[in-house]
Write a structure and sequence with these properties.
The chain has 7 helices and 7 strands. It is an alpha/beta fold and 201 residues long.
Length: 201
Amino acid sequence: MPDVLVLYYSRGGSVAALARQIARGVESVPGMQARLRTVPPVAPVTQEAQPPVPEDGAPYVTRADLAECVGLALGSPTRFGNMAAPLKHFLDTTGADWASGTLVGKPAAVFTSTASMHGGQESTLLSMHLPLLHHGCLIVGLPFSESALGSTRTGGTPYGASHVAGPQDDHRLSDEEKALAQALGRRLADVARRLDAGAAP
């Protein structure tokens, strides 16, 4: 069964919660399944290497995950209007995948969580599009035909799914945020399924 890779970094749990909703959307498409993966944290000073498998949550991503997926959803919390360093660090190590065209022609979508409504959601999502474009991905967003996009008072943008977590990271996903994350996963999986079927011999 074709996999859509849902790859994210989450520190407080909000991005992980969005990732699970996107995975639900992916798996609502017949014949598609989600593969949840994360990246290890990084630090400004050298620390002991992370264990090869996290103590809990999604496993760490591998190069095989990138090669085997038919689509990619990329998620990160916002850091000053940009993606968090752990996700950026991982992307910076994918030069060999870029050179070999591992992700060329695969659809990709992005998602984020911020502490406040105007904490840089849209700039973070747009910044995450850039490496995906360099990798040759086909960007999938959220059209305004998704009614929750026009009515949400929390997260949700045409550039990707989002969540307003609050200053203490204690706000649960709103109904609109869940609906839009699932819609993004569903749309990504549907596009991936159509492209994968078209590529089959």
